[in-house]
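Structure first, sequence second, as always.
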């Protein structure tokens, strides 16, 4: 991202790829880097195959997250950071640790049928026997699962096909890593398109208009991407970071193994 930002400073807009890489971390972090220079940021990565294509039964695509960040003023930046699957593997693991059934439409079993047993879904993913997480939108086409599937393929094209990296089911977890993943980064200087202050003002107006939209019955307000995360960050900075009991127990167990006290 620093490389494409440097190029964007001189030419206005720049994009770049990384291939044969490893764990990506947080897509939104990279997309937000250009905000400090009044640039729009884009970041994507493909991942080990965990997602089942619409009407399929075998994992063929990763959760393939993408992030987009645009600067504003008083409203704070618009930061979209999303998986192209319904959920990440981590969310399925949380349900497994808490012995909770997965919601319908999150995953399918080895036959391509809806699955709610988190432990069984994770077992199938680990041993690649079929089944996995569904694309954004869920099962089939009724609620737009094919659109999430298309977005996941788009990420694979920009990250892997464009860079000559591994793609689709070629990418598999190893004991130590999600190996051979590829990334895509972009930076666009706002003033290469229009006056930066005018852009920021219009961003404020857009985000404020959405945020002040009348909420549905039973809801407190309408949110925009990045708002909940900023509010949660402020709470954590004040009160500390909440950790689920199961995760805390795992951390303590690792600490005891290596002689690290809480």
């Amino acid at each position: 991202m620093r490389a494409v930002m440097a190029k964007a400073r001189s030419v206005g807009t720049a994009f770049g790829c990384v291939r044969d890489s490893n764990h990506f971390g947080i897509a939104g972090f990279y997309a937000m880097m250009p905000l400090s220079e009044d640039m729009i940021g884009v970041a994507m990565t493909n991942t080990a195959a965990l997602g089942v294509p619409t009407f399929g039964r075998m994992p063929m695509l990763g959760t393939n997250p993408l992030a987009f960040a645009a600067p504003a003023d008083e409203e704070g930046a618009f930061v979209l950071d999303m998986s192209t699957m319904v959920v990440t593997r981590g969310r399925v693991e949380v349900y497994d640790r808490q012995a909770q059934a997965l919601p319908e439409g999150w995953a399918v079993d080895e036959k391509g049928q809806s699955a709610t047993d988190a432990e069984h879904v994770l077992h199938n993913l680990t041993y690649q026997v079929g089944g996995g997480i569904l694309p954004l939108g869920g099962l089939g086409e009724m609620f737009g699962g094919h659109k999430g599937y298309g977005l996941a393929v788009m990420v694979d094209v920009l990250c892997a096909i464009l860079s000559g990296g591994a793609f689709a089911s070629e990418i598999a977890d190893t004991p130590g890593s999600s190996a051979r993943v590829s990334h895509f980064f972009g930076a666009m200087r706002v003033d290469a398109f229009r006056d930066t202050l005018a852009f920021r003002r219009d961003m404020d107006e857009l985000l404020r208009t959405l945020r002040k939209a009348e909420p549905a019955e039973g809801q407190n307000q309408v949110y925009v991407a990045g708002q909940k995360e900023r509010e949660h960050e402020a709470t954590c900075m004040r009160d500390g970071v909440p950790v689920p009991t199961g995760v805390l127990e795992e951390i303590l167990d690792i600490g005891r193994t290596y002689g690290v006290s809480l």
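Margin note: The longest strand covers residues 13-21.
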